[in-house]
Write a structure and sequence with these properties.
alpha/beta, TIM Barrel, 191 residues, globular
Amino acid sequence: MTHEIFLIAAADKDAATLSAQFGNLLETVTPAVLLIPAGARDAEAYAGHVRDILPRVQQTGCAVLLDNRPELVRALGADGVHMTGGIKALAEAIGDLKPDFIVGTGDIGSRHEAMTRGEMDIDYLMFGDRNDTDGVEMANWWAETFEIPSVYRARAHDDPALATIGSEFVALADPDWDDPIKLKSIKGLAA
């Protein structure tokens, strides 16, 4: 199975460094999504950070998602938002942004919670982002059972689950996506 690449930027790196890393990896792979974490930045600092990265990434056809900031999506010209809060926050993001923007979700703790979120108008569910052992099993279960895409957040470029994961997307966090050699070692990634 071929997996689309879902990148998760480092929260503590500046925009120039992230843009350079992104440019370097384009020689190896074509990512589908870049999630820009807010980290410790307040809304104003985060907006400035996103503005500095967004044009470079979007010109390659890669979607840019904001981290739990649905109110900034339109203003910044992002492609959507990744929500990890509760059901109420997710429902509000969906109400504000769909159908024009991507709304995905993560931080899912059970099959019941996954199904509850899956009944909402979301574009994907991310598994493995809670650093629990159920991420692989839940990602495969979701991919086999439901049509809404699943994203498996790999623990590292050499995560053994990457050999058998059935998710449509594989999420890689910095530093595992800033090294083209590491990316080439992952079988099944879309080129």
